[in-house]
Amino acid sequence: MTSAMLRLVPRTLPSRCAPAALRRTLFSHRPSARATEEFDITKLNAKRRDYEQNRTAFLAAGALAGIVSFVYTAWKLKQALDGSGERSKLAVKCDAPSSIPTETFKTEAGEKRKVVLHDDEGREIIPTGHGLVKAFPRAIELDMPTARQGLDRNEASMAASISDEAGVEFTLVGLGMRTVTFIGIQVYLVGLYVATQDIARLQHHLVKKINPLATTLIPTEKEALRKALLDAVEGDETWDSILQESGCRTALRIVPVRDTDFHHLRDGFVRAIQARSQRGTAYNDEAFAGAMKRFKVMFNRGSVPKKKELLLCRDGAGALSVLYGDGERTKKREPTREVMGTVDDERLSRLLWLNYLSGSKVASEEARRNIIEGIMELVERPVGTVAAQVV
């Protein structure tokens, strides 16, 4: 019995050790193919690249949507502001206000002509095309302080405080709207006036530039003059010589179409003057610096409501006078204007005028082009005949 049991022992030992051997086989020899796939560097890089591309596309789409919404909002705001201005009452009284055209010029026989209307008092007006300030007077009378050289201080102050019931007549050449920012927010209307008595001088200098022997220009010569005035360099040279040599008395009439202030207007004028004065060394002296200082002091004032009138006047010697008033005429009186100050240095007024007349960048491109069209009306007539027709 004992020997039989001993013989059975070796047979049972292998069966007891089999599970241990089986466990070693299962845990010691796991296949590693799945781990290799999970840590494939090429696939990871591809996934990262796709993620970055999708992220960049979403960010670009969001930025584009933001820009579009900003532009759309600004455009709607501009439309709302323009609509409120159009609903305001007219600045000029007329028999039929709704019939005032929006075009400043009309074409007759292939040539552009200013549209001239009459208000209820029979005065000639030029439509501006704006809903708030419907028209500019074709002619204004100005008594420039720089012409009162024979008055003492008390007489000059008394003359400046009363209404300008008489003075030199100025005739409108052209006008346009001054806009700012890329959406074209309208700020003020500006018109160039020339003393009626000095129109012949202006005609003479413009005609002689194209044809020294002529007294008027034919269509091809007019086109050559138009091209010259529109050219940035040649236009600068032409107007610079006219302002210095012709002795023409001129005025810039500025009427805001929205509420503004004197500091805002001054900053625009000063930037324009400084930008042009840096082109040469003719303005690097104490006299010009003093003139700039006096010009800035004039505008140390408050607000400028819409439809008020600011007049920048340049006499025959180039001296600048700045007048401010209500800009409205009635049957009983002319507009009341206050003299803000004067500057004798002609270089300052010349640079300020060039900011509206010539160069690669002007304060109002619309005003520059309309002024040139007005010039074309002058040079097609014999020198000296336009003033007689206006008077």
UniProtKB/TrEMBL annotation:
UniProtKB keywords: Membrane, Transmembrane, Transmembrane helix
One Pfam match: Chalcone_2
The protein's name: Chalcone isomerase domain-containing protein
SUPFAM superfamilies given in the database record: Chalcone isomerase (SSF54626)
Gene3D superfamilies: 3.50.70.10
Keyword flag Membrane: yes
Natural source organism: Drechmeria coniospora (Nematophagous fungus)
Key word Transmembrane present: yes
Listed GO MF terms: intramolecular lyase activity
Residue span(s) of domain Chalcone isomerase: 169-372
InterPro entries in the record: Chalcone_isomerase, Chalcone_isomerase_3-sand, Chalcone_isomerase_sf
Transmembrane segments: 57-75
PANTHER family membership: FATTY-ACID-BINDING PROTEIN 2
